[in-house]
Amino acid sequence: MTRLELWNGDICVLEVDAIVNPANPTLWMSTGVGGALKRAGGDAIEFAAVRQGPLELGDAIVTGPGNLAARSVIHAVSLDRDRRTSGPILAAAVRSALARAREIGAASVAFPALGTGVGGFPLDDAARITVATVRDELARSESIERVIFALRGLPAYQAFERALAGVAWQALGTVSAGDRLT
Predict the structure, then answer these.
(1) Which alpha helices (H) appear in the chain, and where do they start and end?
(2) Tens digits of residue pLDDT in 146-174
(3) Which of 131, 119, 141 shows the shortest CA–CA distance to 162?
């Protein structure tokens, strides 16, 4: 059974098998979550990603974690070259990220709020799309035991909390809140 968690804080410090980076097609990591991962984990993450690019929207690749506590970084292309996104692109990026997680045998995966920073995608819509796509993909992902929605701030946390409450999970897992915001 997969455990789903909401967590408020810096995704860079999580000790998980994979952290998802909301990437652009060129895989350069300059701002947002990508910039934070690069600052915390080192340039090696970006260099390894760029060597595998460019990628199409919705695709994902895996690199090492550099100096991060995670085992790997999954770069999911959720932003176009102009740093914009859409619902279908976000869903494809989440599906690709989870496919790469399955391929590397990841038991734990941390997702930020893809597309909501520099991408400007509405938080509530991004949360609904991400949570629904994760739910659908977990039906095919027996190896994934834990998904953390790693969020920054009350608005993002509450958007994902609402999305989790609004999705039928059947027997897929349990939901818990870490670092609960009130």
Answers:
(1) 32-41, 43-50, 87-103, 123-138, 154-165
(2) 999 999 999 999 999 999 998 765 434 44
(3) 131
pLDDT in tens, 114-124: 999 888 899 99
Locus of tokens 């976000």: 90
Residue pointed to by tokens 């509530």: 124
**Identity at 177, one-letter amino acid code:** A
DSSP 143-173: T--EEEEEE-SHHHHHHHHHHHHTS--TTSE
Q: Residue 12 carries which DSSP code?
A: G
Contact 28, 19 (CB under 8 A): no
The residue type at 54: P
Please state, in angstroms and rounded to a whole number, the distance separating the CA atoms of residues 169 and 158. Answer: 18
Residue with tokens 């997702």: 111
- The neighbour count for residue 5, using CB atoms within 10 Å, is 19
